[in-house]
Automatic annotation (TrEMBL):
It comes from the Bacteria. It is found in: Cytoplasm. It is an enzyme of class 3 (hydrolase). DNA repair enzyme involved in the repair of deaminated bases. Selectively cleaves double-stranded DNA at the second phosphodiester bond 3' to a deoxyinosine leaving behind the intact lesion on the nicked DNA. It catalyses: Endonucleolytic cleavage at apurinic or apyrimidinic sites to products with a 5'-phosphate. This is Endonuclease V. Belongs to the endonuclease V family. The gene is nfi. It comes from Actinomadura parmotrematis. The record marks 85 as: Interaction with target DNA. Its cofactor is Mg(2+). GO terms for molecular function: endonuclease activity. Mg(2+) binds at residues 44, 115. Transmembrane segments: none annotated. The keyword Oxidoreductase does not apply.
Amino acid sequence: MRIAPLPAWPAAAAEAAAVQDRMRPLLDLASPGPQEPRTVAGLDVTYAGDGGAGDRLAAAAVVLDFATLEVVAESVVTGASPFPYVPGLFAFREVPALVEALRRLPAAPDLLVCDGHGLAHPRRFGLACHLGVLTGLPAFGVAKTAFVGAHEPPGPRRGDASALVDGGETVGRALRTRDGVKPVFVSVGHRIDLDTACRHTLALAREYRLPETTRRADRLSRDALGAG
DNA sequence: GCGACAG
DNA sequence: ATCTTGTCGC
C-alpha cells in the first residue's frame, strides 16, 4: 500500500511529545468505523536489546480475512530502532518500521489492529492514533496492560467490560476476551468508535486472550528477528 | 519527594 | 520488550 514519506524523525523526547501534540488534532474520533471490514492487519514489533536506541528490531504486518481469520498477506522488515523506549513515546520506536512493513503489503487493509494503546495515553496520542493518522486507515489498539487511567474489574465472562477512565474522560475499555482470564485494554486510534473496536476485538479473539492479528504478527516478527 | 510507567 | 523451569489444567 502507498503511504506518504515520513517527516524527519525526532531524536529528543521533548520534540517527540511536541509531534504528538501537533498531530492530535488530525484524529477522526467521530466516524463509527468499518462495521464489516473485509481485511484486518495485525501489527507487532520484536526487539533484541535493552530498550535503547539502536536496538535490532523486526516489524511485522499480517493481513487476515476478517470473516475467516485466514492470512491473505504478510510482510516483515528488520532494522534498528530509531528511538529508545520511553513510556508515552513508544510510537517513535515502532512507527518507521511498521510503516515500511505496511508499504510492502500488496494492498491496503480495511483496518489496523495495534499492539499497544490509542487514546489511552498521557497526551491522547498512542501508537494506534499515530499509525491511523499516518496511513489514513481506521485503527485501534489492544494492549495487554493498562498504561493510564483507572478501571473496575470487568465481570468474569468473555465479553464483560468496564470503562477505562483517565482525567475524568473515558479513554478506553477493559475487555474480557476469555472467561476468567485477565482483560485486554482496547482504545480507539483513528476513524473508529470504541464499541466497534471492542466488537472487532472479540471477533478476532475467539480461542486466545489476544486477537489473532496480534498473535500472527508477534510470531512473524519473532521468527524474522531470529532469522535475520 | 516517591512510585509507576504501552512494548 | 527480554531472560527462563517447572507445574497445573483442559
